[in-house]
Amino acid sequence: MQFRMVHNNINVLDLEKSIAFYKEALGLEIVRNKTAADGSFRIAFLGDGVSGHYLELTWLKEKTEPYD
Description:
Strand content: 35-45%
Distance between the termini: 35 Å
Structural class: alpha+beta
Helix content: 10-25%
Shape: globular
Number of strands: 4
Strand order of the largest sheet: 1-4-3-2
Oligomer: single chain
Number of helices: 1
C-alpha cells in the first residue's frame, strides 16, 4: 500500500490575503470554495493543477485572535 497525502489544512484570519500569498509564492490557484450557509466559515481549496494535492485554507468567523 502506498501512502499519499491528499491535502493539508491551515486555519487563517484573512482568507483573501492568504489566497493571494499562496498564489504569488507557490503559484497555487483556487480549485474549489465552500461557504457555510450561516456564514460561520469559508474554505478555499488551492491546487497546482499537476500533483493532485490541495492546500485547504479555512476561515472561521468566530476566530478574531491570531493562531499560535
